Amino acid sequence: MRNLAINTGIWNYVEPSKETPRWVHFDERQTLAGYPLIRQGSRGVYVCVAQDALTTLGYDTGGLDGVFGTRTQSSVISYQSRNELLADGLVGNLTWNRLMSDVVGRGASDTTILPE
Fold first, then answer.
1. How many CA atoms lie within 13 A of 94 on its CB side?
2. What is the pLDDT of residue 79?
3. Residue 112's pLDDT band (cuts 50, 70, 90)
4. pTM for the complete prediction?
5. Which domains does the chain have, with CATH numbers?
């Protein structure tokens, strides 16, 4: 059995590859889209998910660093404006739903983290 190890500087994660999730966990702490509300100043894995999706769709977030800074916020606002969403720079229910729908099937980008 081979272990999956990911270390991006934001998180360090090791588990047996057969137990690696291939889905998003939904619970009451998250938005209806299954993701938490993120905004400027947010940090962590979900910011990385949003940054990767935006990058895949052609928006410049400044890289995959897990920090929701001004470049990520500008990318979110641009994405929201182009997709007839409220351009408030917050990634909530409607933005997550649309973003995840748009990115499905696009394949890996330069920022996508793939298991070995």
1. 12
2. 98
3. low
4. 0.69
5. 25-103 (1.10.101.10)
Closest C-alpha among 51, 49, 31 to residue 97: 31
Per the DSSP assignment, residues forming a β-bridge with 7 are 12
Q: Using CA atoms, how far apart are residues 115 and 68, in angstroms rounded to an integer?
A: 24
Quick one: three-class SS letters along 63-112? CCCCECCHHHHHHHHHHHHHCCCCCCCCECHHHHHHHHHHHCCCCCCCCC
The answer to whether 40 touches 68, Cβ cutoff 8 Å, is yes
Share of the chain above pLDDT 70, in %: 62
What is the number of residues in the chain?
Answer: 116
